[in-house]
Amino acid sequence: MTFWKKFFDNTSMFDRFGNINVVSSLKEVILVKHLENRGKKVDIYLTTDKNINLYELEQLCDSVGWVRRPLKKIKAAIDHSFITVCLFYRTGEKKKLVGFARATSDTVFNATIWDVVVHPDFQRKGLGKILIDQVVLQLRGADITTITLFADPQVVSFYRNLGFVTDPDGVKGMFWYPR
Ligand SMILES: CC(C)(COP(=O)(O)OP(=O)(O)OC[C@H]1O[C@@H](n2cnc3c(N)ncnc32)[C@H](O)[C@@H]1OP(=O)(O)O)[C@@H](O)C(=O)NCCC(=O)NCCS
To answer: How much is the pTM?
Structure first.
């Protein structure tokens, strides 16, 4: 049995939660969207498996112009995240990462979403929404009630659309940086 056969045999195992397919186990892979990219039909899959190719993730972050960070630190950040969500499609025996998001958490009260990214070729096709919906559903599944994130100015309305509010009750995000 090939890798992909084994891999995709799992795709029918999912729970229904509203309109969203919720990944119910770590290694599970679910089909989330049929898209067209450059005239080709592409099936987009979602997984919360943390076994992520760091070079691919770096390429994805490069594609949106983010400053590079040491891979060793990214690996540690992923290992210590409460959840990671990856979106990918397959080309032959390989998979191509096109979306990523992660959240850190104290596991009971609070969580913060980080590193939300969709490859430019796949933006404005609903994948960012799928990433955030999945993260939120997973966190709500753990009964976490306060979910925060830091939005770049150009994506505030993207997050607003998905139910996030800026400065609730006048609360301000504050940062400390080394001088
Ligand atoms: C922000 C980002 C993740 C959005 O992903 P996406 O796949 O393009 O988003 P979606 O297609 O799921 O969009 C969902 C909705 O938000 C809207 N939207 C998407 N990007 C938006 C933006 N930058 N500003 C306002 N609305 C936006 C879409 O039009 C869509 O609205 P609709 O449901 O009414 O059609 C993606 O543009 C990205 O990776 N940007 C670069 C990295 C980045 O800035 N990350 C966020 C750091 S805080």
So the answer is: 0.89
